[in-house]
Amino acid sequence: MYSNSGYMFSQVGRPRGLFNLGQSCFMNAIVQSLMATKFKEFCLSNAGFVNNQWILFGNLVEVISALNDEGDPFNMVNFVDSVESISQFRRKVQADAQEFLSFVLETIHDELTIVVEHQVSDPLQDIETHGLGEVVKSHWETRKSTSPIAEFFHVQTVTLMECPSCKNSSGQFNDVNHLLSVPMPSPLEGPKSVAPSNPTITDCIAEYCKQQTLLDGHCSSCESLGLQHRLLLGRLPPVLIVHLKRFYRHFDGTMRKSQTSVSICPELDLAPFTLYDGQSTLYRAVGVTNHRGQVLHLGHYMTISQRGDR
Q1: Where is the USP domain (predicted)?
Q2: With contact defined as beta carbons under 8 Å apart, do 133 and 276 qualify?
Q3: Other residues' Cβ atoms within 10 Å of the Cβ of residue 77
């Protein structure tokens, strides 16, 4: 997880842990990682205002409040009970931490969504007149609903298509995501697979955003083949979650986990991958959640997070 808000987690005394309720490490790791972000302060500020409609959020606030104090490991049984009542996630059954995080953020987003009743204007449409960056920015600013989850975490991505012959360009707005899921360099296919050299987080994001040629793509203006396709980032969130796609399909048809080491950049600059100016593109690493193990549904999750200046 990365933060661009200048926020730094601080806690007096020894950080508090969570009981493992039986292979619940994937839940514990995600909750502890959220503690290192400014979203923690939002949870604490709502501790006295939780209502019956905030089922998952209310129980998460209870956990965040407990972890903010010193003491013995906390038993987040109420939170886990609420998770089990509305999802397929279960204690004593290992699951993917990224899938669990997406579930938590999506559910709380739905619980806290606010319908924007008064839009200032319709979003800009004409790219040639206003420029793609301003059109992308306008689509975010005039959305019809929002939530604190959207404000903290949502990443806006745009698919940019350009014809190399006539230079006609267009942009397609993709679904807004809670996280940026980027590819890992996969080992070369074959019986003697060889992993590539160690990449950085920036390298993985560059791979995600790299330009590609669509050989069967037709230009709507001149009918030429070979459109240039590239993913770019629009609105950047205060808290950026980067997910590494470590699992891939091997040449023998089985799912494998890439063991390639990825360097976590203490500071991350997304300026080369964004569409418009006027927003902060500098991020600082505040937490990393690791999976130890060789297969998808076995192993152990651990979180390393920034605690003040440590």
Answers
A1: 16-310
A2: yes
A3: 13
**Whole-angstrom distance, CA of residue 9 vs CA of residue 11:** 7
How confident is residue 7, by pLDDT bands cut at 50, 70 and 90?
low
d(CA 106, CA 154): 10
Contact 5, 238 (CB under 8 A): yes
How far CA 105 is from CA of 32, 54, 89, 224, 284, in Å, comes to 14, 13, 14, 42, 21
Distances 136 to 39, 99, 159, 167, 279 between C-alpha atoms, Å: 25, 28, 11, 19, 13
- Distance of alpha carbon 205 from alpha carbon 155, whole angstroms: 13
What angle do helix axes 25-34 and 77-86 make, rounded to 10 degrees?
110
User: Which residue matches tokens 């063991």?
Assistant: 259
Both tokens of 124, joined, read 């800009």
Tens of pLDDT, residue by residue over 55-103, are 899 999 999 999 998 889 999 999 999 999 999 999 889 889 999 999 9
Quote the CA–CA distance of 97 and 110 in Å, as a whole number. 20
